[in-house]
Amino acid sequence: MVTVGLFIRVEAKPDRVADVEAKFKEVVDIVRAEGRAVVWFALRLGPTSFAIYDAFTNESDRQAHLDTMGPALRASGAELFVAEPDVQYIEVVASLLPGE
Residue 1, class by beta-carbon neighbours within 10 Å (0-12 exposed, 13-18 middle, 19+ buried)? Predict the structure, then answer.
């Protein structure tokens, strides 16, 4: 059962939008191999606005994921993003996943 998640908003530099999309497409394979996230989405919210939503079954998986992926996101930040990523810790109230 999914109980916690992350909602991370980023604003791409206008000339780096394609690079942000490419980075997210690379990261999905890393997240899949990591095996902690139950779901992971990279979302486009507007012309230069993006978000990542991922959910986990417990707090320890969420924290381990952040410990693994957080430094890479921050390292990309200066070259790709207008500002630091806005990381929101969320609690999942209800969910519908395949097979449930």
Answer: exposed
- CATH, residue 54: 3.30.70.100
> Contact 2/45 with Cβ under 8 angstroms?
no
Range of the domain at 43: 4-91
Whether residue 96 is contained in a domain is answered as no
Chain centroid to CA 90: 12
Q: How many domains does the chain have?
A: 1
Per-residue pLDDT of the chain (100 residues; tens, 9 = 90+): 999 999 999 999 999 999 999 999 999 999 999 999 999 999 999 999 999 999 999 999 999 999 988 887 888 888 999 999 999 999 999 999 988 7
16 located within any domain = yes
Instruction: Return d(Cα 7, Cα 5) in angstroms, integer.
Output: 7
Beta carbons within 10 angstroms of residue 43's beta carbon: 13
Could you tell me the pTM of the whole model?
0.91
